[in-house]
Every structure is written in structure tokens, then in C-alpha cells.
Design brief:
- It is a single chain.
- This protein is an alpha/beta fold.
- It has one domain: Alpha/Beta hydrolase fold, catalytic domain (Rossmann fold).
- An 8-stranded mixed beta sheet has the order 1-2-4-3-5-6-7-8, sandwiched between helices.
- α2 crosses α3 and α4 packs antiparallel against α7.
- Keywords: Hydrolase.
- InterPro entries: AB_hydrolase (IPR050471), AB_hydrolase_1 (IPR000073), AB_hydrolase_fold (IPR029058).
- Pfam families: Abhydrolase_1 (PF00561).
Length: about 260
């Protein structure tokens, strides 16, 4: 099983294909399988590196809170482990925020950024006010199955075929890790660091995604030279809602960057 140690965490990853390296980072409470449609479509032109963020999937995290900067450090150490100097970084939601943090802290390692339904600040938003007490209450009183079913139903709104995968992945995550992850996300504050990104950026947003809708204008304004793309009939998990459109957008953007 391909793993490496990053501090006290053990990180699982997979590599597929040949070409310029592209790291895919999944969203909160999911795993590397989120990117299956992209791996299948893009591996003929790129070296695809998909991995499980600490505490997710097959990766193991030490006890304590979840922090973006730790996961971003894991991403950079993954590149070190694979002897890759520079890579394209693509992520969705939490994965986008992790990729963004990696590009801020290690700008020389990011060839480009593809940020899907990303965010820059949740620390002062309604997200924190909602999820801080909700995660505490859920961890203590709500069984895992109803939580997984509800989350899967909401995220698979535009593509019900994705519902079993989402439900199973959420169910497999320990309650404590689930709670730590959402609590860590609610502490996110990266607004003041956006100007430090120096690589090309593709900013993608699902038109029906209300979770990160109010974050997109600030990202577009502060990420110098960013390209913006909005997809119809896609919710938060836009890469699973509209895989063919997302694959085409990624491929076209990266070919332009590499040329």
C-alpha cells in the first residue's frame, strides 16, 4: 500500500498515468475516490496523484484538531516523497483550500491552481456559527448513519448515482475525526494571504452551490490573473455532478499553462 509518514500522520496516495504531475485533493469527509472520473479521463496526458487527506480514507491522523496548514504541509511532503519539484494542484472545497494554502506557503512548488467551490474565510461566516455547535451536538447525540445519509442526499442532489459513494465514505469516518474536520474548517481564514499566490489559477464554481457562492468574488478579485468558470446544473461536488465538463476544463487550462 503506497503510504508515507508526514510528521505523526500516515498519508495514503495513488499515482496513475504519465506526463506533467497533477495533484488532486478531495473535499471534507470524502477520499481520493472522489476523483475517479478525472483520473480515468486525464491519466493519458498527466501523472495523476490522488491522495487521502489526513484523517480521511486510508490516511491516519494523530489526535487533535484538523488544520489546513498541516494538510498543506502533507501535500508538499507528498511531492518530496515522489521527488517532484513542481506540480499542478487541483482541489474541491476543503481540497481547494488545502491546495491554496500549499501555493501560498510554497509558491515555487505550484505550477498552477485549479480551485473548485473553494473558500478563503469561514471563521466569520454563518458556516462557523452553524457548524461549531452542530458538530458538537452531532458527535454526542446523533448516530452515524443518519448523518451520512443526510450529507449524501444533499451532496448528490444533481447526480444521485454519487449518493452511495458519499454515504459509505462518510459512514466510514470516525465520529471524532468527522467533528474535528468540520471544526477545523470553521476556523479557516486565508483572505489576507491570497495576494501571495503567483501561479496561474482556474477558479471553478457550481452555479447551484450555495455553500461557497459568497466566497467567489473575493477569490477572483484577489487572485491575480485568475480565470473564472461557472458550471450550470452542478452543486458542491461539481466534479461528480458534471465530470465531462470538469475534465474538459481542467485539460484545456493545463494544456494552456504547460504551453
Amino acid at each position: 500500500m503506497p503510504v508515507f509518514r508526514s510528521g505523526y500522520a500516515v498519508i495514503y496516495y495513488e499515482t496513475t498515468g504519465h506526463g506533467p504531475p497533477l495533484v488532486l485533493t478531495h473535499g471534507a469527509t470524502l477520499d481520493h475516490h472522489q476523483w475517479t472520473p478525472q483520473v480515468k479521463a486525464l491519466a493519458k496526458d498527466f501523472l495523476i496523484i490522488s491522495w487521502d487527506v489526513r484523517g480521511h480514507g486510508r490516511s491516519v491522523t494523530p489526535p487533535g484538531t484538523f488544520q489546513h496548514h498541516e494538510a498543506a504541509a502533507d501535500l508538499i511532503r507528498l511531492l518530496d516523497h515522489l521527488h517532484i519539484e513542481k506540480a499542478h494542484m487541483c482541489g474541491l472545497s476543503m481540497g481547494a483550500a488545502i491546495s491554496l494554502e500549499a501555493a501560498v506557503t510554497s509558491p515555487h512548488r505550484a505550477a498552477s491552481l485549479i480551485l473548485m467551490n473553494s473558500y478563503h474565510s469561514l471563521s466569520t461566516s454563518g458556516f462557523r456559527k452553524l457548524f461549531a455547535p452542530l458538530t458538537h451536538w452531532t458527535r454526542r447525540f446523533v448516530p452515524r448513519l443518519p448523518v451520512a445519509k443526510t450529507q449524501a442526499k444533499l451532496l448528490a442532489r444533481f447526480n444521485r448515482n454519487n449518493q452511495p459513494y458519499i454515504e459509505q465514505t462518510v459512514r466510514s469516518m470516525p465520529k471524532t475525526t468527522w467533528s474535528q474536520t468540520w471544526h477545523g474548517l470553521s476556523e479557516t481564514e486565508r483572505t489576507g494571504k491570497l495576494e501571495k499566490v503567483s501561479c496561474p489559477v482556474l477558479l471553478m464554481h457550481g452555479k447551484q452551490d450555495l455553500v461557497t457562492k459568497n466566497q467567489q468574488n473575493t477569490l477572483f478579485t484577489r487572485l491575480a490573473g485568475a480565470t473564472r468558470l461557472e458550471l450550470d446544473d452542478s452543486h458542491h461536488l461539481m466534479n461528480l455532478d458534471q465530470p465531462e465538463q470538469v475534465n474538459e476544463a481542467i485539460h484545456s487550462f493545463l494544456k494552456e499553462v504547460d504551453n
